[in-house]
Amino acid sequence: MSDDCKETAATARAMLEGISLVLADVARRGQPRLAYDIASGLGLDFGDLVTVADAEDVPELRRAFGN
Q: Is the dihedral of CA 47, 48, 53, 57 positive or negative?
C-alpha cells in the first residue's frame, strides 16, 4: 500500500472515530433518533461505527440504531 493510501485510510478512520464519538454523545443526551438520522444521512450503519467506537460508546450507538 502506498504512503498516500495509508494516509488516506488513517484520515478516514480518524474521521469515522470522531463521527462515532459525536453520535454516541447525541444518543447519550437523549436524542438516539437524531443520532440515527445523522448516521443514516451520512450513509453509515451500526457496523461502520462500532468498528471504531470506544467500548463505552457502543451501548449508546446500539440504542440509537435500535430505535
A: negative
What is the Cα–Cα distance from 20 to 23, expressed in whole angstroms?
5
CB hemisphere CA count around 21 (13 angstroms): 7
Q: Which residue type does 19 have?
A: I
Put residue 30 in one of left, alpha, beta given phi > 0 → left and psi -120 to 50 → alpha: left
Listed in sequence order, the residues at least 6 apart from 44 whose beta carbon sits closer than 8 Å to its beta carbon are 16, 19
Mean pLDDT of the chain: 91
In whole angstroms, give the CA distance from residue 34 to residue 22.
11
What are 7-35's pLDDT values in tens digits? 999 999 999 999 999 999 999 999 999 99
Cα gap 4→54, rounded to integer Å? 27
